[in-house]
Amino acid sequence: MCTMAYPAIFGRVELMLGTETLRRLKTTKVAIFGLGGVGSWCAESLVRSGVSELLLVDSDCVAETNVNRQLMATTATIGDVKVEALAKRLREINPDVKLDVRAQIYDETTADSFGLEQYDYVIDAIDSLTEKAALIRHALSIPSVTLFASMGAALKMDSFQIRSSEFRKIEGDGLARALRQKFKKTGGYPARKFTCVWSPEHRENHGEALQPDAADTWSAKKARLNGTVAHTTAIFGFALAGLVLQDVEKKATPSI
């Protein structure tokens, strides 16, 4: 592989955000948990925008049912480890990107192994409620970490209803409702407020119910499988990346 530098890659980002913001993006560290239809697109957007150090965490392999919405999922990658398939693509975008690739499950027993205190931002794109609640609590217990979380991206079709809000202000999202109940039952809300990407839209499943794919271990944990389409899950991921960029820009240029 060519090892030359690629100074023009981020030229348009610099024109948009300025030299100081781009410099900060290149030293920003982001941890992404869950690399499905939301997290995979978030990772790509961050790398294309100049973020040069990421932690990628997902225990799954690419399943046939992932191909409709997940960035690295193609018929050629079915059966591959998700984090490795995604890492390959991200390195093709920026050969100099630093990736810590973990084919692991995040839970309370593994939490300390990820070293979240080393990161500026944590992106929660986890599906499993228990692990999602644990990650949010953990990340928000570290004062130096900013957390952005995805609520439910399944059963959404209308791109123009997708928005961001502080978690307590979300209305009409089933995952947010379940997460509130989880927090109440297991020790209360996290130490700090946090911003989420979500949509109030709710659609019903149609067609025949599918069985969880044997290669899709997260699906096997869910009570039911919900319909998804690529454009909405991707917009959720891009919106999370946008929150990171906006926050870095704000810190680089406080007058904005």
Short recap of the structure:
By secondary structure, the chain is an alpha/beta fold. The chain has a single domain (16-252), classed as Rossmann fold (3-Layer(aba) Sandwich), CATH 3.40.50.720. It is built from 8 helices and 7 strands, in the order ααβαβαββαββαβαα.
Please explain how this structure is put together:
There is one protein chain. The chain is α/β, with parallel strands linked by helices. It has a single domain (16-252), classed as 3-Layer(aba) Sandwich (Rossmann fold). The protein has helices at 11-17, 19-27, 39-48, 82-93, 129-140, 174-185, 217-221, 230-252, and strands at 29-33, 53-57, 98-102, 121-124, 146-150, 163-166, 195-198. Strands 3-2-1-4-5-7-6 form a 7-stranded mixed beta sheet, with helices on both faces. Helix 3 (39-48) links the parallel strand 1 (29-33) and strand 2. Helix 2 crosses helix 8 and helix 3 (39-48) runs parallel beside helix 4 (82-93). The radius of gyration is 18 Å and the shape is globular. It starts with 10 loop residues before the first helix and ends with a helix. 40% of the residues are buried.
List the helices and strands and how they pair.
Elements: H1 11-17, H2 19-27, E1 29-33, H3 39-48, E2 53-57, H4 82-93, E3 98-102, E4 121-124, H5 129-140, E5 146-150, E6 163-166, H6 174-185, E7 195-198, H7 217-221, H8 230-252
Parallel strand pairs: 1-2, 1-4, 2-3, 4-5, 5-7
Antiparallel strand pairs: 6-7
Helix pairs in contact: 1-2, 2-8, 3-4, 3-8, 5-6
